[in-house]
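Title: Prediction job returns without error message
Component: structure pipeline
Severity: low
Priority: P3
Assignee: unassigned

Description:
Job completed but the reporter wants confirmation the result is attached to the right record. Sequence as submitted:
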Amino acid sequence: MAAKQTTDRRIEIVAPRYEEVTIPIVGLTPLLCHNMPEAVKLQMVLDREQKERGATKGKKRKEAKSIEQQFADACYIANPDAPATNGRYGFPTSGFRLACKDAARTTDMAMTLAKLTFLPLVELVPIHCCEVRTRIDKVGGTTPGKPSTACVRAEFHGWSVDLPIEYDADFTSLEVIVNLLQRAGRCIGVGAWRPACGGLHGRFRVGD
C-alpha cells in the first residue's frame, strides 16, 4: 500500500496597512444628546431586580432634579474647562460607527463588514457649535397606566466634530468610508430623535 503524500500547507497573512485620518463631520440638523449616567443605569438594574423579586415595599421616592441638573446629566463632558460652544461637551464616536453599520442596508455591503470599515481612535469627540440649548420634551404616555414625563436634553445647533479613525487600507479605502458616512449622515443620523428613530435630528455630512 502506497504511503500518503503530505504537503506542507502554510498559511501566510500579509501585514496590515493601517492608516489614520481625521474626518470632519458637519451637522445638517441640530444634534440632540441624552446621556444616561452610570448611576442611573445602575439604579434601573436595581429597580428591575427588586420588581422581579416583588420587593417593592419601602421603596424610596426619587428626589426631583432641577432642569439644570437634568441638562448636565444629559451631556457628555469632553473638556470641563472649555467653553460650552467650543469643546466642553462631547459625543460618543461609537454613534458614527453604528450609523455606518445601519446605513449599509442601503448598499450591497453586509452590516457586519460595514462595522469593520473603521475604528474610532477616541471614545468622545468635542462638539463645536454655534449654540447649546436646553430642550424639554414630553415623552411616554402611550401605555395605559404610565403617565407621560418631561425629558430634558441638550440640543446643539450649527455643530461639527472631528472624527479621528483608523482603517485597514488592504480591507477598505478612505473613499468607501467617506461615502458610507455620507449615507449614514443623511438617512440614519446620530444622537436622540435621529432619522433612524423617526426624527430629524442628528443628520450630518462629511466636511471638506
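Comment from assignee: result matches the submitted record. The two ends are 71 Å apart (CA to CA).
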